[in-house]
Design a protein that fits this description.
It contains 1 helix and 9 strands. It is mainly beta. A 5-stranded antiparallel sheet has the order 1-7-6-5-9.
């Protein structure tokens, strides 16, 4: 599939209790920060949206604009979920996408499009109350 914006494969979390607004905001920001940390792009402008259906929280992140355009690469985002009460069944989630530049999108345009081939479609994470997202730096 072709995207005018870069869409990172969704990160899905399954929660036993509904996450708070603060948790969702922290999760979105942590995810965007991890995209910036990949250093594939300079001055990334991103947006993150969460949606809940049937008890599964899905985080969708799109990269709207960037300065430097890599020829390709793999985006891998790992986030830890810190359980303040020690009741977390799983402590991290990973989503990966293979990034390929496929050329200019229009005549006289050097912007280009990117093709994203999902390698891993977010690992499910079971969460409970009193947690906050935490970036994981090591692989």
């Amino acid at each position: 599939m072709l995207f005018n914006t870069l869409e990172v494969p969704p990160l899905k979390l399954e929660a036993q209790t509904p996450p708070s607004e603060e948790f969702l905001e922290q999760l979105q920001q942590a995810f965007i920060n991890k995209i910036r940390d990949t250093q594939l792009f300079a001055r990334v402008v991103s947006k993150a949206e969460t949606r809940e259906r049937d008890g599964v929280l899905t985080l969708d992140v799109s990269i709207l604009s960037w300065d430097e355009q890599p020829a390709g690469g793999v985006i891998e985002i790992r986030l830890g979920i810190v359980d303040m009460r020690g009741r977390c069944e799983f402590t991290h989630a990973t989503t990966r996408g293979e990034l390929k530049r496929i050329g200019a999108i229009a005549q006289a345009s050097s912007i280009g499009q990117y093709e994203i081939n999902p390698l891993v479609d977010g690992v499910a994470v079971f969460v409970t109350d009193f947690m906050h997202p935490h970036p994981i730096n090591e692989l």
